[in-house]
Amino acid sequence: MISDLNVSKEVEGYRRYLMLANFKKSTVSMYCRTLEKFLEKTKVDFAPTEQLNQSHAQSYLLMRLEQGKAWSSINVDYSSLRKYFKERLDYNWSMRKMPRPRREKILPAILSRQEVQRLIERAPTFKHQVFLTFLYASGCRLSEATHVRLIDIDGERNQIHIHRGKGAKDRKILVPKKLIVLLRVYYQHYKPEVYLFNGRHKGKAYSAGAAQWSIRRARALAGIKRKCNIHALRNCYATHHLELGTDLVFLQQQLGHKNLKTTAKYIRLCIERYQNVQHPLDRVEIKYHPKKLM
Fold first, then answer.
1. Which of 4, 71, 133, 228 is geometrically suited to a Cys-Cys bond with 104, CB 3.0 to 4.6 A?
2. pLDDT of 23-44, one tens digit each?
3. 137-184 confidence digits (pLDDT tens)
4. Could you give the CA distance from residue 77 to residue 83 in angstroms, rounded to a whole number?
5. Are 116 and 136 within 8 A, CB to CB?
């Protein structure tokens, strides 16, 4: 029964389960936060004698949708609750009764190569410049970039070993020699320990919050009006590569995508790729009469 639920005990049990299942710390944190909010809300909104079931999860997700939460947030909530019901409570979760919310097809923000250059040049410190360059040159996700260790960089092969990317998968990425040269200069200036990018304390990884601040500050200083976050540099990496003719399968491996379709979505963002496309309107000469307004 709902009245028997001990929220802190349930959340801690779920946390231990996810950790044993080798989920990333960030995922464990998000899933547990969702479960805690869900259980607390359920204890308030429903009769104590009711048995916890899928309809309670449905009510919670509908409430989140009505609050105007983004698809990405709702999707995390759904994944967390589905896993909790199926694997912790051994509940027969019905996809027909409650389908996963459809993904919003929103085109991500893309900067031109000139805007990326201006963004990096106007970053407040040399460290911020190097960090933003690293993201653009590697296509790494934020959590991957902040956890790159010094021993992961192979300067001779121009490779970087990415540990436990999305789906807990390792991969090796190729980076331009220009980046390796820049990282050597950066190392001489900052002498980082353990991680390539340290936080306030040597040997500790750069925080996600500080990284996000760096691009917000650089964007303001560069006078770039359109909104863009750290992930926009990953989008720019993929899109600019495709515009220059990079092989799609190579990009899939570099980005760590499981499915080629995920990589192919960046084709929609290319501009230079379609600049030579001939439109039929360009082949007809139409005489317009601007004076004939009526």
1. 71
2. 888 889 999 999 999 989 888 8
3. 998 888 889 999 999 999 899 989 988 766 667 888 888 899 999 999
4. 10
5. yes
Q: Residue 233: which of 216, 245, 248 has the closest Cα? A: 216
In the CATH scheme, what is the code of domain 2-88? 1.10.150
Q: Where are the alpha helices (DSSP H) in 139-259?
A: 142-146, 177-190, 208-222, 230-243, 248-255
List the chain domain ranges: 2-88, 113-274
With H, G, I as helix, E, B as strand and everything else as coil, classify residue 3: helix
Pick from 271, 272, 251, 270: which is nearest to 262 by CA?
251
Q: What is the DSSP letter of 203?
A: T
Measured N-to-C along each axis, helices 25-45 and 54-66 cross at an angle, to the nearest 10 degrees, of: 100
| Burial of 73: CB neighbours in 10 Å, binned 0-12, 13-18, 19+ | middle
Coil/strand/helix, residue 126: helix
Q: Quick check: pTM over 0.70?
A: no
